Please model this.
Amino acid sequence: MKLAKYSFGTGDRFGLQGSAQLAVVRQAKEKGIDLAIVWNKSHREHIIVGTSPEDVRREADEAVKAAGWQGSYHVDADHIGLANVDLFLPHSDFFTLDVADYIGQPAALQDIEAFVDTYSNYTGRLEIAGLSGPLFVTAEQVRAIAEKYLFAVQQAARIYQYLASKKTSGTFITEVSLDETTEPQSPLELFFILAAIAENGIPAQTIAPKFTGRFNKGVEYQGNVEQFNLEFDQDICVIKEAIRRFGLPEDLKLSVHSGSDKFAIYPGIRAAVTKHNSGVHVKTAGTTWLEELIGLAESGDEGLALVKKIYEKAYGRFDELCGPYASVIDIDQDNLDSPEEVNNWDGKRLAQALRHDQKNPLYNSNIRQLLHVAYKVAAEYGDVYLDLVRKNREVIAHHVSTNLYDRHIKPLFL
Ligand SMILES: [Zn+2]
Model:
């Protein structure tokens, strides 16, 4: 199973927006761009919302059937490991093997020695096509990379082998993710990580490194955009070189776990992908749920009242909700409006605080991030929340589609 050159990963906390999400890929298709849509949901998200991998499969299949969609689509077991992969086995055809937690753990000494030995011929001057100049590699660097990453890659291989033992070969796509860590991987590190991936027999079609900068949930990129652009461009070159040298799948490409809404880096991604005629997978995940809140806030008294209640509860449960996401949110609590203030707002005012429009002075990234991680509260409302979303299906679907198409698909692919 081959992933399309351009693919788009989208999340849907409550599983009601599959059709609205698929609509944007159809729209892109009408403009001549073939995009595969990938519905992704992590184990953590399933636990918090109370859904199961089967629900995502059903949502995807139903949306595709309803639309008569002929293009490719996949269901991504996002950020899985050996502890939870079984739950996803029958329902997913895309597996994101998350081994970031194993970075820095030591591989067996003999494995490190063997790796250093094998790649000793890469020391000195290393030419990588597309880079402005050669890299210079020392044996110490190769060893340091092996010490830091080899064990993680070996863990990815264990998950992959388990998958391969359970699923027919050629029926699923493999991604290796190293993004949920604090330190970015340099292009040189990526090169040797890919060597290890090839050596360990993982037919990765996508690789998600940790890029430079912060990828906070649902808000703009925080970091040096120029440095990101350079690194992203170099990573593509490194991948192409690694495909040639190590025999990795020809269509191996970068996967950007964007945390959504990284508008500042979209032009650089697009430029590099175009320049190198490369593919890319971009996961944008969770802001669909915020579009539901925006739609509800604007839908009338009932919807607005519920959004305000969710905010009030989230405000009071700050530590509990933000804890699991501490490394991917930056909320300035002093600039969170109190629930009392928010209760005085009308729907339009609340939607303006929430909608990611950086030109709007009423936009508040703190409120947005807090609500982004507050889907647990909405889940606790159960059918009260879901019924209101269903009741306002049309207006919400419009928000979901417009947001995805105008602000993500267009700048990235069109
Ligand atoms: Zn990720």
Remarks:
- Residues 289-392 form one domain.
- The beta strands are 6-10, 36-42, 73-80, 94-98, 124-126, 135-137, 173-177, 206-208, 253-257, 280-285.
